[in-house]
UniProtKB/TrEMBL annotation:
Single annotated GO MF: DNA-binding transcription factor activity
Domain HTH marR-type, chain residue ranges per copy: 35-86
Matching SUPFAM superfamilies: Actin-like ATPase domain, Winged helix' DNA-binding domain
Family to which this protein belongs: Belongs to the ROK (NagC/XylR) family.
Location of the region described as Disordered in the Swiss-Prot/TrEMBL record: 1-28
InterPro entries listed in its UniProt record: ArsR-like_HTH, ATPase_NBD, HTH_MarR-typ, ROK, ROK_cs, WH-like_DNA-bd_sf, WH_DNA-bd_sf
Residue stretches of biased makeup (Polar residues): 1-12
UniProt superkingdom: Bacteria
Coiled-coil ranges from the UniProt annotation: none
Protein name in the entry: ROK family transcriptional regulator
């Protein structure tokens, strides 16, 4: 079983659900329904009287809301006895409360819907134009989420919240994207507030590498791993850190920025302004740029995978150099944190041992021998879904759902 990575209580930095007309009767009913759903998520099946006491709503209000939720197949009810009296027990159906996981990248948006039992109900991704602005990405995510809710036939009121990951650092105090993101157009944008206004549910923002780490111990085969490093290699490179069973955020949330660790003092100038950062050697952006120089057509990430499978010498050399650099950066982290497991994810995960072997060599060369001997390195089995799955898990755990 995975470690409990977050408190079941609501994040104090997360806004309450935002509604278009907060004073309207429909908004009041929606808030009351949300209170009942959250009570059922946190405490399991209850009688209507117990729900009334827990939520502070009147018996009549609870009865009317439960009746509507039953009609919409959000809950199941059955007769029971409480204190010797006949009562009605209310239980959330598996899809009576769902979580949305949203992953917004440099050129894509992916949305998943997950049930309380950590079952993936719906999933879809779309391509986004390079350099898309924040409003364009958030609008696409909103429309895709609405489509999946409709496709699943789940009432909008069943949505517990939305977890959102982006490739860049997030100031957890404000939910604002800060300098260093792969999406420079998003810097300074308060995604938590803007998305909450669009989605009208609690929104939880995090760095995509952190969500990849959370996914590995929630959806992947690494449940119970107390100390894990998840390294995402894509257009940017970042690490999500699980220390003593919890995601580590540091002071304000800017952790795991290994893409900007110096690997070569005389290397290329990085987008962060420093020289020789890991991203200038091992990101998919630099890899495709290097391979495009000797190709008549631009090379993409899919081409790297195809050429590696065909054992193209130039591609294998670029992959080997990148892997050694990632291994060196992983060693620096491992020497500090002494993890049980280092998982490599991102768009190159399908390379398998072709990428993993040079990473292992880099780790062996630069890690303390005992750290290397006691740390397992492997590729993620979740592929490009990891970040969206982690985002959905974040919502379920923040809203008090049982840990898988």
């Amino acid at each position: 079983m995975p470690a409990d990575l977050s408190s079941p209580s609501r994040n104090p930095l997360t806004p309450e659900p935002v509604t278009a007309k907060p004073g309207s009767q429909s908004a009041l009913r929606a808030r009351n329904r949300q209170r009942i759903i959250e009570a059922l998520v946190a405490s399991g099946p209850q009688t209507q009287a117990e729900l009334s006491r827990q939520t502070g709503l009147s018996n009549a209000t609870v009865s009317n809301i439960v009746k509507l939720m039953h009609q919409n197949r959000l809950v199941s009810t059955e007769p029971t006895t409480s204190s010797g009296r006949r009562a009605l027990s209310v239980r959330l159906n598996d899809t009576g409360a769902v979580a949305a996981g949203i992953d917004i990248g440099r050129s894509h948006v992916r949305v998943v819907l997950a049930s309380l039992s950590y079952r993936i109900l719906q999933e879809k991704s779309l391509r986004l134009p390079l350099g898309h602005c924040a409003s364009e990405g958030m609008d696409a995510a909103t429309e895709l989420l609405e489509e999946l809710l409709e496709r699943q036939g789940v009432d909008r009121s069943a949505l517990l919240g939305a977890g959102v990951g982006i490739p860049g650092p997030i100031d957890r105090r404000t939910g604002t994207v800060v300098q260093g993101a792969i999406l420079p157009e998003w810097v300074g944008i308060n995604m938590r507030q803007d998305l909450a206004e669009r989605l009208r549910v609690p929104v939880f923002i995090d760095n995509d590498a952190n969500l990849g780490a959370l996914a590995e111990v929630t959806w992947g085969p690494h449940g119970g791993t107390e100390n894990l490093i998840f390294i995402k290699v894509a257009t940017g490179i970042g690490a999500g850190l699980i220390i003593n069973g919890s995601l580590y955020y540091g002071n304000v949330g800017i952790t795991g920025e290994i893409g900007h660790a110096t690997i070569s003092d005389q290397g290329l100038i990085c987008r962060c302004g420093n020289r020789g950062c890991l991203e200038t050697i091992a990101s998919t952006a630099i890899m495709t740029e290097l391979l495009s120089r000797s190709s008549q057509e631009p090379v993409g990430t899919a081409d790297i995978l195809a050429r590696a499978a065909a054992r193209d010498p130039a591609t294998l050399r670029v992959i080997d150099d990148a892997g050694m650099a990632v291994g060196r950066a992983a060693a620096n982290l491992a020497n500090t944190l002494n993890p049980e497991l280092i998982v490599v994810g991102g768009s190159l995960a399908d390379l398998g041992d072709t990428f993993l072997e040079p990473i292992r060599r880099g780790l062996l060369r630069h890690a303390v021998p005992m750290v290397d001997e006691t740390s397992t390195v492997m590729m993620s089995s979740l592929g490009e879904r990891a970040e969206a799955l982690g985002a959905a898990a974040l919502v379920l755990q923040e809203q008090g759902a049982p840990v898988r």
